[in-house]
Write a structure and sequence with these properties.
The structure holds 2 protein chains of 2 kinds.
Chain A: H1 5-9, H2 16-19, H3 34-47, H4 49-52, H5 75-84, H6 98-110, H7 124-132, E1 142-143, E2 146-147, H8 157-160, H9 163-171, H10 173-176, E3 183-188, E4 193-201, E5 205-210, E6 215-219, E7 223-228, H11 243-255
Chain B: H1 2-12, H2 23-27, E1 48-49, E2 63-69, E3 81-83, E4 86-91, E5 95-100, E6 106-111, E7 130-132, E8 135-139, E9 144-149, E10 155-160, E11 175-177, E12 180-184, E13 195-200, E14 206-211, E15 251-253, E16 258-262, E17 284-289, E18 295-300, E19 316-322, E20 325-333, E21 338-343, E22 349-354, E23 361-364, E24 370-372, E25 395-397, E26 402-409, E27 412-417, E28 431-436, E29 470-476, E30 483-488, E31 498-500, E32 504-507, E33 513-518, E34 524-529, E35 539-543, E36 546-553, E37 556-561, H3 564-573
Classes of the chains: A alpha+beta, B mainly beta.
């Protein structure tokens, strides 16, 4: 159990070093008290959201959802980073009291763990069999060195997507598909047709992976046709998989954390 | 012509003939287009240059002249000054760098050591300098104003303007005129009470101060209404930490003897319920008597704001022919998504018109007060928190008579207020924001968790696409408020705009392209990928007859110019510039 908000309120305004000696837990999402996480959500919205974004990925190169932090492993180190900031790089120091610091760390440790969806946890090993077998996910997706390159590589999907997002993607991909992952169809001025998915785009150029995974960079002024599909290529698995199979598949996807 | 060209080459080997920048030179800044003497280019903040060497016809030949790389990290929002061949630019947190504007080689660097108590929201930025006489003026993150000798880089005086541990800071470039230098205080996200203050340019002694939140007994204080019993959390002394930051430099009309400033958002930003009333002078334009700092008039763009729509824009002044009569006008593309024209002598509302999608209001009443339409829970507000435009400078060209604005289009966001108690030096936002990326089949519904435009961008990858909003350069006709043309970008933009007397427009964006557009048509004429987000106002200047365009991207300051051969032909083809005479 972590320090609850009520208990830690008594430690108001203790210095960081004192806070870190309160037996605070060290990084497992389930080690934190629900009350601390809820309090931390408000502290986060008040202090952190403005730069880091509601999803924790607002600063490029920093993604709280992964559970990994550039300058901190332990909660004590996290408290130091928050308490001291990086003023010259634009992150101010946050003089949070103990309750707020405890809460915001609990929230950071759980930021990708709050949108749980409605399907209970299943068996990840069985889920891998669904993924590779009945679900035929590898016919479009790839995990590590297996599968197709048509759809996004899912090797670290469990580190960057919540359980709720993954569940909605399986049940209703049309509503959940992120815009960057919509399929594109291109015809160059010379008449070459390319189907692929965007990796990056700006006003003048687009970078994509074609169906064989080759990296292609094109100038938009060289294109005769550039169509971004508004329909998800991924089918819905609602009714295709049983609820248990979906639960297992979801649990498997959440184990894919990259290297 | 060739003889003059040779003479210029010879001159470039010696020195730049630096002279003192007296008030008369600042008053007539437009007459020396080779220089960039104030943050806004002139006291009317036109961000316009009379230079004509680079033209729509030859801009394709524009090439890199030099790069200066700052050794520090973080975003770089500074606008340089250029004085007789010397460029003065601030780099974070509060350095002044003096360099050769033709080569980027450094003469000296002044380093200011900030107090450890610095508390700055939203990036520890500095946006630039003022010069008057032989002195440079800089505001600091710990809320001091310093005067530095422009030749030697030596400190002349250092005046504390406010208490940094309470969240006060200065991030804007000061405004200097006559014998005084003006700054405004930032810190609205920390519950400050903002002010604009004038200091004696020679001694650093305070001359006057205008508080942007009126105290009890002062006009405007009645807009900080009493708490109503049973209406939820309410702060009976909300005015004491009511915000009203001043994040960007004001403008000055010497004939009217008025100085104009944009006032930032109210504190707390999002929970309007705990501070009942219109909350003057937050979200307003104020016109102050330049002698005394007394308020002459105000116009509030966003009364009782709940969206952080601070008026953090540079007031752009111009004399317009308004429905057949001359009007001393002020133009303003506000963060709240509306373009405004006011009479700058009286503050009278002349025009207000959305320049991006707006749904927080449905129109104006006869006095120019917006009719507010807060969106129900679960529905997005347009524009989003970054607004239709923000702190980066627009441009007004006296040739095209168009106002050029960097805008964020089609971005909406969920806003929700929550009570927040003021604590010194801590964030005082009072609410939640959530991104809104519409589904392609159902634009009223969001894609849950879809990546949205980040407030800061520090990398070259777009994982958010333009589905949740994008940027555009708009050329707005101030007489109608309607865009004459629109240049759509894929990503949003935090880059200001400079226009020239050859009808070129230079700007950038988060994608990292410095781009030249035709100011009359919006056609793209030239672009270069500078490789990082641009967060500043490009400028143009010339040294020894060669015109440069300077802009920052990431940690680098780039100067572009035509190759020597192109300059030769440009000289042969165009009348000589005033600066060469």
């Amino acid at each position: 159990m972590g320090i609850s908000v009520l208990a830690s309120a008594a430690l108001f305004a203790l210095p960081i070093s004192a806070w870190a000696q309160q037996g605070a837990p060290q990084g497992h999402p389930e080690d934190y008290a629900a009350a601390d996480i809820a309090h931390g959500a408000r502290v986060y919205a008040e202090n952190c959201d403005r730069c880091h974004g509601a999803d924790g990925a607002g600063v490029s190169g920093v993604d709280f959802r992964t559970g990994k932090f550039r300058n901190a492993d332990t909660d004590r180190q996290l408290a130091m980073v928050i308490g001291r900031g990086f003023p010259t790089a634009g992150m101010p120091a946050f003089a949070l009291d103990t309750a707020d610091m405890t809460g915001v760390i609990a929230y950071l440790r759980n930021i990708n763990n709050l949108d749980r969806g409605s399907i209970p946890a299943g068996d990840a090993d069985r889920g891998r069999l669904v993924f590779e077998g009945k679900g035929a996910c590898l016919s479009c997706h790839r995990v590590k060195d297996k599968g197709s390159r048509q759809a996004p590589d899912l090797s670290d999907i469990g580190a960057t997507r919540s359980a709720g997002t993954l569940e909605r993607s399986l049940i209703n991909p049309q509503e959940q598909l992120f815009p960057i992952n919509r399929a594109v169809h291109i015809v160059t001025r010379e008449g070459t047709a390319i189907n692929g998915r965007r990796l990056n785009e700006d006003t003048y150029t687009v970078q994509l992976a074609d169906e064989d995974g080759r990296l292609v960079s094109l100038s938009k002024s060289d294109l005769r046709q550039y169509t971004i599909s508004t329909k998800a290529a991924m089918p819905s698995f609602k009714g295709e998989l049983t609820r248990d199979e979906l639960a297992d598949l979801l649990s498997y996807l959440l184990t894919l954390k990259g290297q | 012509m060739p003889r003059r060209y040779l003479l210029l080459l010879t001159l470039s080997l010696v020195c730049y003939g630096q002279t003192t920048v007296g008030y008369d030179r600042l008053l007539n800044a437009a007459k020396e287009p080779q220089n960039w003497l104030t943050y806004g280019g002139d006291y009317f903040s036109h961000h316009y240059s009379g230079l004509t060497q680079i033209t729509p016809a030859n801009v394709k030949a524009l090439n890199l002249a030099w790069v200066y790389q700052s050794p520090l990290t973080g975003s770089w929002e500074s606008t340089p000054l250029v004085v007789d061949g010397i460029m003065y630019v601030t780099q974070r947190p509060n350095d002044i760098v003096a360099m050769d504007a033709a080569t980027g080689r450094v003469f000296w660097i002044y380093h200011y050591e900030n107090a450890k108590t610095v508390t700055v929201c939203c990036g520890a930025n500095n946006r630039g300098l003022a010069i008057l006489g032989d002195t440079l003026y800089m505001g600091t993150l710990d809320a001091h104003l310093v005067a530095v000798n422009a030749r030697s880089g030596m400190l002349l005086w250092n005046t504390k303007v406010a208490e940094s541990k309470s969240g006060y800071s200065i991030t804007l470039a000061p405004l200097a005129f006559r014998d005084r230098v003006l700054v405004g205080l930032g810190g609205g996200e920390y519950g400050i009470r903002g002010s604009i203050a004038a200091f004696n340019a020679r001694t650093g002694k305070e001359v006057w101060r205008f508080y942007t939140i009126p105290a009890p007994g002062e006009p405007g204080h009645e807009t900080w209404e009493d708490c109503k019993p049973g209406a939820g959390y309410c702060d009976p002394e909300a005015w004491k930490h009511g915000g009203g930051s001043v994040w960007v430099t004001g403008s000055y009309d010497p004939e009217l003897n008025l100085t104009y400033w944009g006032i930032g958002n109210v504190g707390p930003d999002y929970n309007a319920d705990q501070r009942p009333g219109a909350n003057l002078y937050t979200g307003s334009a104020v016109a102050l008597d330049a002698d005394t700092g007394k308020l002459r008039w105000h116009y509030q763009f966003t009364p009782h704001d709940r969206y952080d729509f601070d008026s953090v824009q540079v007031p752009v002044l111009a004399d317009l022919n308004w429905k057949g009569a001359p009007v001393k006008a002020m133009m303003w593309a506000n963060r709240n998504g509306n373009f405004y024209v006011l009479d700058r002598a009286t503050g009278k509302f002349l025009l207000g018109k959305p320049f991006v999608k707006v749904n927080w209001m449905s129109g104006f009443d006869q006095n120019g007060v917006p009719i507010q339409t807060p969106q129900p829970p679960g529905m997005p507000t347009y524009p989003a928190v970054q607004g239709g435009s923000n702190w980066y400078s627009p441009s007004f060209s006296p040739r095209t008579k168009l106002m050029y604005v960097s805008s964020w289009e089609d971005q909406g966001q969920y806003f929700a207020g929550t009570p927040v108690e003021y604590k010194e030096g801590l964030s005082f936002g009072g609410g939640n924001l959530a991104p809104f990326v519409p589904q392609p089949d159902n634009p009223a519904k969001a894609i849950p968790g879809a990546p949205a435009i980040p407030n800061l961008r520090r990398g070259p990858i777009n994982n958010w696409t333009d589905a949740g909003g994008h940027g555009a350069v708009l050329a707005i006709d101030p007489l109608t408020g309607a865009p004459r043309w629109r240049f759509k970008m894929y990503d949003v933009t935090d880059t200001g705009i400079v226009t020239t007397a050859s009808d070129l427009l230079f700007t950038g964006g988060r994608e990292g392209y410095l781009q030249a557009l035709d100011a009359r048509t919006g056609a793209l004429l030239w672009r270069r990928n500078l490789g990082a987000q641009m967060l500043n106002n490009p400028i143009t200047y010339s040294v020894n007859g060669r015109q440069y365009v300077a802009a920052m991207a990431g940690l680098s300051l780039f100067a572009f110019a035509l190759p020597d051969r192109s300059i030769f032909f440009a000289i042969a083809a165009t009348p000589p510039l005033a600066a060469w005479e």
